[in-house]
Design goal:
It contains ten helices and no strands. The chain has 181 residues and is mostly helical. It has a domain at 26-143: Alpha Horseshoe (Serine Threonine Protein Phosphatase 5, Tetratricopeptide repeat). The longest helix is centred in the first third of the chain and has 24 residues, at 2-25.
Amino acid sequence: MRKLNILFLSIFFISGISQGYAQTENPIKEIRNELFYTEFNFDKCLNYYNRIVELNIKSPIMQAYQAAAQSLMAKHSWNPVNKYTYLKEAQELLNRAVKEDTENPEIRFLRLYIQRSIPSYMGMSKDIAEDKAAILANLDKLNIQELGEDIAAYIARYMASDEITTDPEARLIKQKLQVAN
């Protein structure tokens, strides 16, 4: 029985170390996957947001994902003042992220996606055309292996929609991101 307890504790300890290492090794991958693969309710949004804040990584890409988390908080907030505050803070983070890494298509995609989700009367959707142009100009900089095929395909499908791009632009996006028509 004692050996079984030692074995269990060893497995628990080793898996805890490897999980902690994985989180510090590439936290953006975990954050990215959770955003794209999770259906969010308020509690999940709050946990997601808190985890990003706790990581305290100030890179432009993490700022963009923190902004996405704040946008999700706005979506689930019932108070109009809180909604506006979350969205305003999200826009500030996104603008800072874009300013620090102007050619990053993933950051530009997140800002475009978020701004297209905000009602235009709020005045927070002014960068859509600029972001679209930057994404198209920098498609080669999207690392499909790092993003994962599912996320790359999602970005391609979203960007190739009739509402966002012309047919030639849609074909270019699908070709560059290696997504079937």
